[in-house]
Amino acid sequence: xxxxxxxxxxxxxxxxxxxxxxxxxxxxxxxxxxxxxxxxxxxxxxxxxxxxxxxxxxxxxxxxxxxxxxxxxxxxxxxxxxxxxxxxxxxxxxxxxxxxxxxxxxxxxxxxxxxxxxxxxxxxxxxxxxxxxxxxxxxxxxxxxxxxxxxxxxxxxxxxxxxxxxxxxxxx
Length: 172
Fold this sequence. Notes:
Blueprint: E1 3-12, E2 15-23, E3 27-34, E4 45-53, E5 56-64, H1 71-88, E6 93-98, H2 106-111, E7 116-117, H3 118-122, E8 140-145, E9 147-154, E10 165-171
Parallel strand pairs: 5-6
Antiparallel strand pairs: 1-2, 3-4, 4-5, 6-8, 7-8, 9-10
């Protein structure tokens, strides 16, 4: 019963590489926007999906930034995402994904000027998500605006090279 959206950023090893979103909520619109690529590295993007949550439209931005890029590249990506949020207007927003950066970094600081880090708001413990065997960094974030963080957890699994972050959010 889940709906699926995929946004391709590059061809990779005979397939497509990008971002995906699974949702139980109705999808109002979807799109994929390539993020700034100033140094010719691997192209990254942000999946833009508007979902209907009991009559409220919520913009969901889903991304995976490149750890091998300099801070300036991730900051440019954060600025592009902030531009998308500004274009959305005052409605609720969820920005999430593998930001390949830690809280307090320039990327996190830029995004949290208008978004709330769900882990900072209601998390308990360190929230580390990588490496799976002995997590020591929190690089996977859920950031929100216009939604109330109720709970957030990091689940233990070996299904990925990152531990998943699961949040419960309430429409204000």
